[in-house]
Amino acid sequence: MATIPFPKKKVSAAVAHEELAILERTYPHAVTALEYRNPFQLLIAVILSAQCTDARVNMTTPALFAKYPTPHDLAKAPLSDVERIIKSCGFYRAKAKSIVSAARDLAEKHDGHVPKAREDLESLAGVGRKTASVVMSVAFGEAAFAVDTHVFRVAHRLGLTTGKTPLDVEKDVTKIVPREKWRFAHHWLILHGRAICKAPRPLCERCPVSAICPTGKAVLKNKTGKSPRR
User: Exposed, middle or buried by CB within 10 Å (0-12, 13-18, 19+), for 155?
Assistant: First the structure.
């Protein structure tokens, strides 16, 4: 089944605001699906979630944190043991190196505490802009907008962006969304991407935004020959 192409131009500001308002009403209690007890656990879970489902990460982290509950503990963990514990998350060798190295950085440079500042977070091994944004917004309530594969896809399909990179998408969406809602908007888009706006085919017939979404209108018109009613 061919992937549906992204719209070639952005929707108007008025339509963008309406789309986002619908998503906010649809997912009013949107939060991360990752299970964690403190910023350290969230940081490690986010690193493990790369190209892996949150459900699988949640099945893996209890055993990891039971054996290595603090950054100091994980920093000293044998890589082979960490690999064994997280193997089901995929890319386990690279991820084991990343989380042990990140824990070592926390232990040696931050006294075992996860820093709040983006620059400090991104200086940690295995931590890029997306991971830092998740930790900032979820653990510390900071104004940050993380762009993962779901957010990238949904933002394009809604016509909120035509950006080629995650940073381009972040810049486009954060121009539309009020700063105090950045940390929530990520969850609106990611939950919509998981539930409705799936890859490669979105469930436009069930989508609350389809009547004004450029992708939804195109998909539904292609199926019925008529534009969706509002």
Answer: buried
